Amino acid sequence: MSPTLLAVAHGTRSASGQRQIRDLVAAVARRRPGLDVRLAYVDVQRPHVAEVVAGVREAVVVPLLLSAGYHVRVDIAEAVRGTGIPVAGPLGPDDVLLDGLIGHLPAADAVVLAAAGSADPRWRASVHEMATRIGAHVAYASGSDPKVADVVADLRRRGARRIAIAAYLLADGLFYRTLHRAGADFVTPPLCRDPAVAGLVLRRYEEAAYSVAAAAGSR
Fold it and tell me: Could you say which residues of the chain have pLDDT below 70?
């Protein structure tokens, strides 16, 4: 029997964001009938990942997160410590997400890639790499500078008439809603609304499950 796929999201107070994540997990389950797929969170919502981990015997945790930041390295790691449950890589960066962004971008004089802020240099490097690949300016919806509204305003001063924001955010929520107040002409939808992301979640699950099976077979 295949191990449980335990999808772990950040959690949000946004009703639409909550629904989007539930829909994503439901889409994953539809792609693999018979696979036990469960949803947990690291913050805001319940059940917490540690609560669900306690109730499963064999599982693979798939972070519904775009980077291996604090929530992966600390919250999820602590929840699975001593259980032997593997943790898959985060969803980003990945070409599936890149294609999703490109596919929703309209013609524009300038594009701003908007991500959640982080002090993690690896996360910032991956954001800059993604921005380079779509020819975008980097900005952050929270924490880190430069802020999205400031970058948009600077592009306006430099003559950009039509500005699009490529939202490098998985679901609706506080950060995503700030993008619509940043002064741009267009904001791409949350990444989880792309049907291809369900396939990406399954790929992360399969990669982690294969690694565990291969390690066990080599002993």
Answer: 212-219
Asked if the domains at 4-91+195-217 and 95-193 fall in one CATH topology, the answer is yes
Side by side, the strands of the sheet bearing 59-63 are 37-41, 4-9, 59-63
What gap in Å lies between CA 130 and CA 122, rounded to an integer?
Answer: 12
**What SS3 state is found at 6?**
strand
Given this model, what pLDDT does residue 210 score?
83
Please state, in angstroms and rounded to a whole number, the distance separating the CA atoms of residues 74 and 168: 22
Q: Is the separation of the CB atoms in 171 and 26 below 8 Å?
A: no
Fold adopted by 4-91+195-217 = Rossmann fold (3.40.50)
Query: Given this model, what pLDDT does residue 202 score?
Result: 98
Domain boundaries in the chain? Answer: 4-91+195-217, 95-193
CB 95 within 8 A of CB 148: no
Question: 138 CB contacts (<8 Å, ≥6 apart)?
Answer: 112, 113, 115, 127, 128, 131, 146, 151
Residue 53 to residues 30, 33, 60, 127, Cα–Cα distance (Å): 22, 21, 10, 31
* pLDDT score, position 219: 53
- pLDDT in the model for residue 217: 57
pTM above 0.85, yes or no: yes
CATH code assigned to 95-193: 3.40.50.1400
